[in-house]
Amino acid sequence: MGPTEQQVRDTDPTIELLARVPVFSTLAHEDLQRVAEVAVPRRFQGQQVIFREGDKSDTCYVVREGHCRAVRHHADGRAITLAHFGPGDIFGELAMFDTETRSATVEALDRVQALAILANDMRRLMRDHPEIAAKLVIALGRRLREANDRLTRQSFQTVQSRVAGVLAELVRQAQTEGAEAQDVEVRITQADIAQLAGSSRESASRFLAVLERAGVLAQGRGRITVHDPAALARYVY
């Protein structure tokens, strides 16, 4: 059973942040406190690489402020964006369980404040407190099921629906960070939207132009302002 709302309110910001992370959300308050004790604050500048594909996997990160993206590079120089991360998101978490090399490069999109948790510290906690390991496995299993469900839904969706879904998720993330209900700005390129939606850039660009003509959003250099999130949601099915 996870921490109660009262417990979270009574704790320091690090424990409060960890309680928001899906992988740690099932942990009891005292377990969150143990994780917080080994978490180290880290700062990264915009465009700074946090780790590269092929690096040793020895640390996971929880975003406190700012945004990052995960990218994979092809031998011919092309790159594809796999995911975006914002406050409350975790990445590199498989380092807690294995020593495989990184499967993607993660870079900061703007100034990022994060918590770094060394794999050795987390493994020691799991050895000393087996209940933590059990709860983490359950949480990771839940995330895997959610990812499979999302891939299944996307396989039946049109390009338009996938692009709208990516934008809708970015809008929800921005709103959790304090954005208003309308005119929500998200910093992302057309290329990244296309890659996250599993479509060509041309197809994503055409649909974004349709949404712009409909007054649902406005496009700028490296950013999109969604004027009417409710209207955007109607394209997701």
UniProtKB/TrEMBL annotation:
Ranges of residues in domain HTH crp-type: 157-230
Entry superkingdom: Bacteria
SUPFAM superfamilies linked to this entry: cAMP-binding domain-like, Winged helix' DNA-binding domain
Transcription regulation as UniProt keyword: yes
All residue ranges annotated as the Cyclic nucleotide-binding domain in the record: 23-143
Keywords: DNA-binding, Transcription, Transcription regulation
One of the Pfam families matching this protein, by short name: HTH_Crp_2
Protein name (record): Crp/Fnr family transcriptional regulator
Taxon lineage: Bacteria, Bacillati, Actinomycetota, Thermoleophilia, Solirubrobacterales
